[in-house]
Amino acid sequence: MDVKDRIRERIAKTVETANADPEGKKIAAKLPDGKLVVEAGEDLVIPILVRGGTLTLADDPSHPKAVCRFSDAGAAWAVLSGTLSPYAATVHRQLDQQGLSPMNETFEKLWTLVRKRDSDLREV
Amino acid sequence: MEPYSYDKSFELYDRAEKVIPCGIYGHLGVGRSRLNPMGCYPLFSERAEGTYIWDVDGNRFIDYACAYGPNVLGYGDPDVDAAALAQLKKGNCTTVVSPVMIECAEELIKTVNCADWAFFAKNGGDVTTLAVMAARHATGRKKIVMMKSCYHGVAQWCQSPGTPGVLDEEISSNLYATFNDFDGLKELVEAHDGEIACVISMPYSHVSHYDNILPAEDYWKKVRKLCDEKGILLIIDDVRAGFRMDLAGSDHYFGIKADMLCLGKAIANGWNMSALVGAARLKPVIEEMNYTGSYWLSAVPFAASVAALRKMRALDAARRMQEIGAKLTEGLRQVAEANGALLSVTGLPSLFKIILKDPDGSLIPHQRWIGEMVRRGVYISHFHNMFTNVMITDEDLRYTFDVADEALKITLKEHPEIRTV
Ligand SMILES: Cc1ncc(COP(=O)(O)O)c(C=O)c1O
Predict the structure, then answer these.
(1) How does DSSP assign B321-373, residue by residue?
(2) Within a domain: residue B16?
(3) Ligand 1, residues B68, B146, B240: which to mutate, most atoms within 8 A of Cβ?
(4) Residue B385 sits in the same domain as residue B413
């Protein structure tokens, strides 16, 4: 699978986890309402709408409350899959989180949970 | 003005990242977008003096973060540091305690209105935890009321659900109220009549990322009365606001007397200690607790605190920091207004919160503005309330306003949507 498709799939899984997984729901409850836009290079832009802790994938990236911008798809996949620390990625400007931080922080916790589930570190 | 660059800081980060989780962690760290826009903030400092810090690249900053609270009298205050160093020559972490501990307790009791005794620890979180444990022990009740989105440290009891490593059981006795909503608090208390040990709250709401909220005129008096009627202990967490609103305590500032007051940060101008102080009737309760730490009774911070408390009283430091903060925030507000932007200024001037408003409430232009200021020598955090200290001069303020103006003009070019006119 192409790396961009993997990213799309992982973000979709993150949204699903936030809405349906008991631990995910607990984390998602802390998300402020509004739009979060995940970007990985110019042609991969994924807007996510949050209302009352429920997430939906959207089409329009305008008027975000927060933006989680990866420098490119490679960096995005490295962070989402856990081979690159989000801290190092931030300092090396492969990950730029702008806007309302609780939104970015909480979404990061959600994708981390998805990764842990995926790597069997946690039972589903 | 030529913006700063941070080559050495970033080189050092690469070393740090190999051997320290996150490279730099916690509230001073690189996580959670704290230092974004990345490249605007220095990562490592070389030295500090007065209200300034110099980073490893030789850049100077007027530091309005004040180490997130401890710096009240200026970094390296000569009187405080002389007292600390004199004590260091005599002894610090020793098997038998130094009498300077008594002197420190006596100074606190003299300074802080609700203090009949003082118990010492290291971090603010040590004493908020002790206060809650003591309230449970004093009342024999399990539940505690805290404010939504409050911060009392990092012990499990005060973390939020879903935080890594925090069990639901560890926070299942917490009840959450909304700051300033007295009716809501009353309802909560009545719904759990006889079960609540304490209400713990900061003196006013200074939640990161949002405008700060001062209490309504009679809020604290009503809360005090409710607690008295229901046998609930009132704990004011003054770790952050302490000594910046009123040296006698932030509870005193708002016209009430807390049962226990948590102090830290400014208490010793950056030397590492914290204290829980409280009402005489709770002293026997504290005596029954099992609570201590290897460094808690070390003498050097006590000597520093005695000197700091005396100097803060002599300078009327809280009033001075309020006056400086009022000039600072009014000047920044005027810079925004002159550029056709809206700056919200909330909280009290000595621990002010500023947010450059944007129509989406995203804080993206705000972060850009703050970042450009930092790159020009004015250190402000984009997410947290900021602080003043007594060493900030009118010249520092003028420099700050010039930088704020230059940075705002850059921001407005990229974010014309924040123009209000
Ligand atoms: C209101 C409040 N309470 C408690 C704490 C915890 O203090 P410490 O970090 O010293 O443990 C802080 C720290 O920022 C604080 O602001």
Answers:
(1) HHHHHHHHHHHHHHHHHHTT--EEEES-GGG-EEEE--TT---HHHHHHHHHH
(2) yes
(3) B240
(4) yes
User: Is the per-residue pLDDT at A124 higher than 80?
Assistant: no
Rg over CA atoms, chain B? 22
Interface mutation vs chain B, best among A91, A106, A113, A116, most B CBs within 10 Å: A91
Query: How many angstroms separate the alpha carbon of residue B342 from the centre of ligand 1?
Result: 30
ipTM score here?
0.92
Query: How many C-beta atoms surround the C-beta of residue B176 within 10 A?
Result: 15
- Spatial distance between the Cα atoms of B10 and B102, rounded to a whole number of angstroms: 45
Number of independent structural domains in chain B: 2
CB contact (8 A) between residue A101 and residue B17: no
Atom of ligand 1 nearest to the CA of B125: 11
**Which domains, and CATH codes, for chain A?**
3-117 (3.30.1050.10)
Distance B274 CA to ligand 1 centre (A): 10
Residues B264 and B375 in one domain: no
pLDDT, position B418: 97
Q: In this complex, do B33 and A91 lie within 8 Å of one another by their Cβ atoms?
A: no
pTM comes to: 0.95
Tell me: do B311 and B324 sit in the same domain: no
Question: Has residue B154 got a pLDDT over 70?
Answer: yes
From B296, B315, B334, the end of a domain falls on B315
Contacting residues of A for B208, CB less than 8 Å apart: 101
If asked whether residues B311 and B209 sit together in one domain, one would say yes
Query: In which domain, by residue range, is B381 found?
Result: 7-64+317-418
Determine phi and psi for A56, rounding to 5 degrees: -135, 140
